[in-house]
Amino acid sequence: MMRSPACMSFYGALRAWEKLMGMAAAVLDQDGVQAGIRYQHALVLAEEMLEACSVAGDDEVAQCGDAVVAAYVVAQHNLADIYRRKNAQALAGGHYQEAFQRLDALCKDVAAPEGLRLLAARHMTRALGEWVAHQQQCGNYPASTGQRIERSN
Fold first, then answer.
1. At what angle do helices 114-137 and 58-85 cross, to 10 degrees?
2. By the 8 A CB rule, do 89 and 83 touch?
3. DSSP letter at 141?
4. Which of 26, 40, 25 is nearest to 95 (CA)?
């Protein structure tokens, strides 16, 4: 399959994102500050790719949209992990929340390509799961209340 010029630029950006993520992972245990800086740069790149993908054509979204959406979610979650390691739970929660909210907004954006909205919905499930799991670990949500919620008529 021949890639369009627009998609070729997505692949170049994805390669740069992967390089940043690899550099961050390589120093994570030795220097969390440097890892955080690299993860932040990777997030900025992922946000730019996601924004470009939201106005791309259907062919580009079909070819590289899944990788772009995944890159965004992974970058947010890796930054959350950095903050969790520092015991900055509120900042970590903010990254989980932002990932979910951005995907939710993308799902509702009727101007975005339909394929991208569907990809966002698929990735949103994981983003929501990570956010809720973090909230449960912080004691904000019980894992299970064991109570039924009654609907009023």
1. 10
2. yes
3. S
4. 40
Report the greatest alpha carbon distance in the chain. Answer: 58
Residue with tokens 């739970």: 89
Q: What is the C-alpha to C-alpha distance for residues 108 and 130, in angstroms, rounded to an integer?
A: 21
pLDDT of the chain, 153 residues: tens digit per residue: 334 445 558 888 999 999 999 999 999 889 888 999 999 999 999 999 999 888 888 888 888 888 999 999 999 999 998 998 888 888 888 888 899 999 999 999 999 999 999 999 988 888 776 766 766 776 665 454 444 334 444
Count of C-beta atoms within a 10 Å radius of residue 152 = 3
3-class secondary-structure state, position 148: coil
* Residue 3 per-residue DSSP state: P
Predicted TM-score of the model (pTM): 0.81
Rounded to whole angstroms, how far apart are CA atoms 124 and 43?
17
How many residues in the chain?
153
CB 19 within 8 A of CB 75: no
Only one residue has tokens 């950095």, namely 82
